Amino acid sequence: MWDLRQIAAGRAALDRAMALGGRGPYVVQAAIASLQARERIDWPQVAELYRRLADLTGSAVVELNRAVAVAQAGDPAAALRAVDGLDLDGYLYFHSTRGELLRRLGRDAEARTAYRRALELAASTPRRQVGRHVRPVPRPLPAHPGWLEVHRARPRT
Questions:
Q1: What is the pLDDT of residue 87?
Q2: Which of 12, 15, 30, 149 has its CA 20 to 30 A from that of 122?
Q3: Which residue ranges in the chain fall short of pLDDT 50?
Q4: DSSP letters along 112-143, please?
Q5: In this structure, are residues 42 and 30 in contact, taking their beta carbons and an 8 Å threshold?
Q6: Which top-level group of life is the source organism from (predicted)?
Q7: Could you tell me the sign of the dihedral formed by the alpha carbons of 35, 37, 39, 40, in that order?
Q8: CA-CA distance, 101 to 81, in Å (whole number)?
């Protein structure tokens, strides 16, 4: 699934960019991607890099991604507080992320409401159909954070 040569080439390019003093949003995004390509992801470090990226871009979507990393690092309550402070009501991934965090906190009725709102915002029929057939993730959370893949989005700057 992963092309290890391409990952190594990407990491080498990231090392060069950092050696040249690169600290802009593309370098931070590359650092996040590099961490997320590791076998064991350092979620606190990913969350910190998303914080830096949010400072650079001012993007609420980046803040949403930071909240996901905070949850993956083990603090879904802090992640939910961060999500609840975002102005992304029309963004379906805001609601699906919020639903997942509420589910992790055992607030299932609120989670269902958030998931329903995400489905309402789904732009395509296939996306809505997939959402209706997704089974809830069991507790405790499995080792692989597959739900995160759905929540990655490029920030709008």
A1: 97
A2: 30
A3: 133, 135, 137-157
A4: HHHHHHHHHH--SHHHHHHHHHPPPPPSSPPS
A5: no
A6: Bacteria
A7: positive
A8: 10
